[in-house]
Amino acid sequence: MTTAQQLEGASLLSWRRRQLQRGGRRVDFDWLLDLAGGLSWSSLQRLLVEPQRTVQLKVSLKDLEQIWGHHLDQAIPLQHLVGRCPWRDLELAVSAAALIPRQETEVLVDLALETIAGMSIERWADLGTGSGAIAVALSRAMPATPGHAVDLSPNALALARTNLEALAPEGEWHLHQGRWWEPLEPWWGHIDLVVCNPPYIPSDLILNLDPVVRDHEPHLALAGGIDGLQAIREVVAGACRALAPGGWILIEHHHDQSAPALNLLKQAGLSSIRAARDLEGVNRFALARRSLSPCS
């Protein structure tokens, strides 16, 4: 990218209107102005009232135009073009190697931390870590507690390492390539908290996804089989033997999978089973606990 640029607010607003006439959503363009250009939403709103103000952008208008054009022409996510994504109180590195972290998953982390409040946690795990977003959040919240981030994709693990090294340098975390519980076998029975955001989109729905998602985010992290529950079945099936007695598992799922996800947890012999809602009030998460008695 070229150097930063200073210009009058009125000129910037006129340029912004021209860019929006090319297409796309206003909210996406203003996100680009914020994350790549350094012009926050609140500063933009002030500029709309006081266009005579001078603004300093971190990059040139030419650079921003090129990014916006790639997004419009090729449906490339802006997060991939900028290489960063705000999430919780963090700014994560992102790429096509893993899903872009979603707001719903912020709620999953909050639920996990609320659920274990007051517990003594010996070890935690993030299954299907992707960008490492959940692992970063857990490691920052519990830096002295060993944690394990698992993913089948080596490229996703490389991205997760980048984020963990940058954002959770004080944490005791470990990365493992493999399928769900398998790399964690040495610690089975000693994991007090497991958080998992698995692929859960039914196969028939993949082609109907927005091109920004369908064409640029890894299908390995999206496709959950015919009914969307394939990965959830695998994770739940191993939960009772892998969790410590009294340990918790929290799983994110599709908006219409609450009942079958809860039933899978029940069939696996887990207890304290309940659903939790996302930011829109939809049951999006399933929680369960291994009882203190041996698994059946």
Automatic annotation (TrEMBL):
Q: What does this protein do?
A: Methylates the class 1 translation termination release factors RF1/PrfA and RF2/PrfB on the glutamine residue of the universally conserved GGQ motif.
Q: What is this protein called?
A: Release factor glutamine methyltransferase
Q: Which InterPro entries match?
A: DNA_methylase_N6_adenine_CS, HemK-like, RF_glutamine_MTase_cyano, RF_methyltr_PrmC, SAM-dependent_MTases_sf, Small_mtfrase_dom
Q: Which family does it belong to?
A: Belongs to the protein N5-glutamine methyltransferase family. PrmC subfamily.
> So where does substrate get bound?
N197, P198, P199, Y200
- What EC number(s) does the entry state? 2.1.1.297
Cite the Methyltransferase small domain residue spans from the record: 113-200
What gene does this protein come from?
Answer: hemK
Keywords for the protein's UniProt record, in alphabetical order: Methyltransferase, Oxidoreductase, S-adenosyl-L-methionine, Transferase
The Gene Ontology biological process terms listed for this entry are: methylation
Identify which top EC class this enzyme belongs to. transferase
Q: Does the record bear Transcription regulation in its keywords?
A: no
Q: What would you give as a GO molecular function for this chain, any one? A: oxidoreductase activity
Reaction catalysed? Answer: L-glutaminyl-[peptide chain release factor] + S-adenosyl-L-methionine = N(5)-methyl-L-glutaminyl-[peptide chain release factor] + S-adenosyl-L-homocysteine + H(+)
Which residues of the sequence carry a binding annotation for S-adenosyl-L-methionine?
A: G128, T129, G130, S131, G132, D151, W180, N197
| Taxonomic superkingdom | Bacteria
What PROSITE patterns does its record include?
A: N6_MTASE (PS00092)
